[in-house]
Amino acid sequence: MSGRRSLIVVSNRGPVSYDRVADGARIERRGGGGLVTALRGLLDQHDVTWIASAITDEDRAVAEEGGSDVVLVAHDPVAYVGYYNVIANPLLWFTQHSLWGLGAQPNLGRAEHAAWRDGYEAVNRRFAAAVVAELDNNPAATVFFHDYHLYLAPRIVRDARPGALLAHFVHIPWPRDWSALPPAMRDAIFDGLLANDLVAFHTARWAENFVDGAGDLGSTRVTHRAISIEPAEFDELSTSPAVLEQERRIVASRPELLVVRVDRTDPSKNVVRGFDAFGLLLDEHPEWRGRVTMLALLDPSRQAIPEYAEYLAAIERSAAAVNARFGTDSWRPVDLQVADNFPQSVAAYKQFDVLFVNAVYDGLNLVAKEGPLVNTRDGVLVLSENAGAHEELAEWAISVNPFDLAGQADALHQALSMGAPERRRRAEGIRAQVREHDVAAWIAGLLADVDRASRNVRP
Amino acid sequence: MSGRRSLIVVSNRGPVSYDRVADGARIERRGGGGLVTALRGLLDQHDVTWIASAITDEDRAVAEEGGSDVVLVAHDPVAYVGYYNVIANPLLWFTQHSLWGLGAQPNLGRAEHAAWRDGYEAVNRRFAAAVVAELDNNPAATVFFHDYHLYLAPRIVRDARPGALLAHFVHIPWPRDWSALPPAMRDAIFDGLLANDLVAFHTARWAENFVDGAGDLGSTRVTHRAISIEPAEFDELSTSPAVLEQERRIVASRPELLVVRVDRTDPSKNVVRGFDAFGLLLDEHPEWRGRVTMLALLDPSRQAIPEYAEYLAAIERSAAAVNARFGTDSWRPVDLQVADNFPQSVAAYKQFDVLFVNAVYDGLNLVAKEGPLVNTRDGVLVLSENAGAHEELAEWAISVNPFDLAGQADALHQALSMGAPERRRRAEGIRAQVREHDVAAWIAGLLADVDRASRNVRP
Fold first, then answer.
1. Cβ B101–A101 below 8 Å, yes or no?
2. Quick one: which of A71, A46, A39, A82 has its CA closest to A169?
3. Buried b vs exposed e over A106-122: b needs ≥16 C-beta within 10 Å?
4. So what's the pLDDT on residue A459?
5. Which of B262, B454, B294 is nearest to B371 (CA)?
6. Which of B41, B177, B408, B457 meets the CB 3.0–4.6 Å disulfide criterion with B277?
7. Residues of B (45-74) whose Cβ lies below 8 Å from A
8. How many CB atoms lie within 10 A of CB B26?
9. Other C-beta atoms within 10 Å of B251: how many?
10. Cβ of A180 under 8 Å from any chain B Cβ?
11. Contacts of A103 in chain B (CB under 8 A)
12. Searching chain A, which residue's CA lies closest to the CA of residue B182?
């Protein structure tokens, strides 16, 4: 492993966010999400300046004060809406998760073009300016961009500082087909990423798709490193009072067998088909009725975007349909909980007999690593072939195609019927894999890739 | 060019279909569609046995009699519905034209799996059996399969007759992403096609996607040859009484400028976005109001399939919305004609100032060749970058991204504003290209590819 280094981490969300409480005091909150959690490990080991968007009003006040290791960039509010709510989500997210029904969507009218130009480009320019300012303080620092919000910034930084060392991690799928975007947009995205010395993805599949679409890579290296979790953190969490309290509630009400899913309410997560497949299982296998519940813990997500609000409604309808058809006074087949409650999720991880991950597409899916790590019942992982984690974990999971309802019902039946020795063998396989390939190994691997990239001669 | 050869052509629709009229007499109709029209040229130059599905009751009677150069295969009616209305359309068609909104569709339940097994597989087995019977009469014949209805037949024929010479032309796009289908289905499709000595597509793009997805090609050659038209046929048609009569009607009612589109009412054709883009043009450029009409001649297609019926309704709504917003007593902005009227289409080809082809995806799109060939006004071709014809004609067309409404409105404005010399240069470019690369050249090229493939040593 390399020694201590100077890093400039750039991501839309930062590691902290600020608020002002009733008495006027400023409070600091830890940012959520797998990305921020994973990157927080960098802060202890390296000299990190983190550049992120100012999200709250108090963030904007902090942004004006400056002088911390976290540089919060305040954006024009209209530009930010175009950047975040029109281009990043849904346009890029839907394109990269192959969610568009191209017969009717997307529709790129003048508003969308303006959101690209005055929102996405403008916010990327502001991020790039903040990076250049940091580089002027510390020219030897490595710049480490993150994700789909920041595809254009690397080119702007490269043009301003040709000798800088730039890396970019894309945390979501890289699809083979980018034709949903007009040529000028997709060319700018590839051009921006190719301004980096290193572009990294979770899986070989996404990296190959990128290389394939990029044509000439120039001096850019492309790598893949699957993100992971900090096992010690989950070991500690799983015995925390909050989790134990939630676990007592689950144990008190659980039936014989529990199928668990933990997701955001995002169309890419494929919740509706999961309920439909569970309904098909109950239809075809009456022996499971009354004995199995599907517990769905869903964090409501991006409800300002119409596609997301509609999807949550569809989730509620499909859960209600299964319950209306099969439920009894003493048994609710689908237990749908729409809330952001991480202790409850960890408690459910401990209690599942089947963990169900049927994503349409997913860059990685950390649930597939977190759940098996803390599970106490040798539960079985049912895993979409389109989740990035499938490259690592398929050997110990039951694979499903996300569009194949019949196949998902079969997989649930197989998982629920599996004998104890086979369940144990599989569960142990995943636990060993995750403990060995933890988030520290991910960071070390990436930094080694950065070192290799830094030895490239730029033309 | 090679000499006369023995060919067994296999396609779902044949070159003729039969009916029985009121007095009990059998009548023979020529089959429609670009594929059948293009292949009919083979019949004069080679010894062809054509194997196709019996579609009408009278076809089934002919099938039982046997003994003609057209072998009509009668299928079990339930199997045929599964094969045609569930698997071929919409499942394969939507997958290959990237039309699924994967968040909600497709849903492969038991019915769809049964349609695959008892419909698509069963019908392909019957086709394969008919091919093997023909090969036993004529073992030296080349078998030439066509399109997405028959992906599984080549493997069955290959297993039965290892030494046969097999070729397959896929007339629709080959996408990069096949994950909408479960692994067993997509593996069977690739395996079936790779049982051929030659697999052919219209464009390099589709061929590359196939090679990319196939992995090891074994001894299979892959080629691309863009289908074309018979210029003499269109020269004759364009002065036929039926076309001249339709042309008189158009001339009598046309405004100064005419934008024409000719399509089936298929979601892949992108009619709704075309009307919306035309509405955007009229909104932003009042100077065109009253002077331009978009004449849309649409052949109603596959209305037994819900997605198609819904799409026709959406077409009608969007045309009505543009007309309600901009129409006057003397000018209807969108003239929507839903009918199967080929003479009217050819008359519109002669009269367009702009020919609008904005397909979401299209294997080739013959309209982009037919229209410019007979046009009398040096009309401008606006052409989707996702139509196969774009590889051949982009140099002389205005390219559009099918999802970019703003871009399509801009392209219409550019086309309508273009000066006469530039219009002429482009129109002459397309005409010369189509006359030189006609359907006879397509067939000759393919047969040369077959000869090259026949020299492969099979393992």
1. yes
2. A39
3. bebbeebbebbeebbbb
4. 43
5. B262
6. B408
7. none
8. 11
9. 12
10. yes
11. 99, 101, 267-268, 270, 311, 360
12. A401
What is chain B's mean pLDDT, rounded? 93
- Could you give the CA distance from residue A272 to residue A278 in angstroms, rounded to a whole number? 10
Q: What are the tens digits of pLDDT across the range B264-287?
A: 999 999 999 999 999 999 999 999
Q: Kind and range of the H or E element at B326?
A: helix B306-326
What is d(CA A254, CA A232) in angstroms, rounded to the nearest whole number?
27
Tell me whether A175 touches chain B (CB under 8 Å): yes
Q: How many angstroms away from the CA of B43 is the closest CA of chain A?
A: 37
A402 reaches B (C-beta below 8 A): yes
Burial of A249 (0-12, 13-18, 19+ CB in 10 A): exposed
Whether the pLDDT of residue A351 is over 60: the answer is yes
**Chain A residue with Cα closest to B178:** A176
Question: How many Å lie between the alpha carbon of B54 and the closest alpha carbon of chain A?
Answer: 31
- Cross-chain residue pair A109–B183, CB shorter than 8 Å: no
Please report, to the nearest 10 degrees, the dihedral formed by the alpha carbons of residues B91, B93, B94, B99 taken in order. 180
Q: Which residues pair with A18 in a beta bridge?
A: A28
Which one, of B94, B52, B58, B60, lies nearest residue B77 by Cα? B60
Asked whether residue A1 carries a pLDDT value surpassing 70, the answer given is: no
| Domain at B231-436: CATH code | 3.40.50.2000
* Residue B63's pLDDT band (cuts 50, 70, 90): confident
A6-228+440-454 maps to CATH 3.40.50.2000: yes
CA atoms within 13 A on the CB side of B324: 7
pLDDT digits (tens, 9 = 90+) for B386-430: 999 999 999 999 999 999 999 999 999 999 999 999 999 999 999
Q: What is the rounded CA–CA span in Å between residue B211 and residue B213? A: 6
The two tokens of residue B404 are 């970019």
ipTM of the prediction: 0.90
pLDDT, tens digit (0-9, with 9 covering 90-100), for A56-86: 888 888 777 776 788 999 999 999 999 999 9
pLDDT of B31 over the 80 cut: no
Which residues from chain B sit within 8 angstroms of residue A182, using beta carbons? Answer: 401, 403-404, 407
DSSP B433-444: HHHHS-HHHHHH
Residue B152 token pair: 């599984």
Whether omega for the bond prior to residue A106 falls within 30 degrees of 0, making it cis, is yes
What pLDDT does B397 receive? Answer: 98
Q: Which whole number is the average pLDDT over B81-100?
A: 95
Helix or strand or coil: residue A362? Answer: strand
- Best probe of the A interface among B87, B96, B102, by most A CBs < 10 A, is B102
For chain B, residues classed under CATH 3.40.50.2000 are 6-228+440-454, 231-436
> Which residues 6+ apart lie within 8 Å of A293 measured at CB?
A254, A255, A257, A258, A259, A331, A332, A333, A334, A335
Q: Is B270 on the interface with A (CB under 8 A)?
A: yes
The three-point CA angle A38-A43-A49 to 5° equals 110
User: Could A104 and B403 be called an inter-chain contact, meaning their C-beta atoms sit closer than 8 Å?
Assistant: no
Residues of B with CB below 8 A from A100's CB?
101
DSSP A74: P
Provide mean pLDDT across the span B200-213: 96
Residue at A141: amino acid letter: A
Q: State if pTM tops 0.80.
A: yes
Strand partners, A264: A299
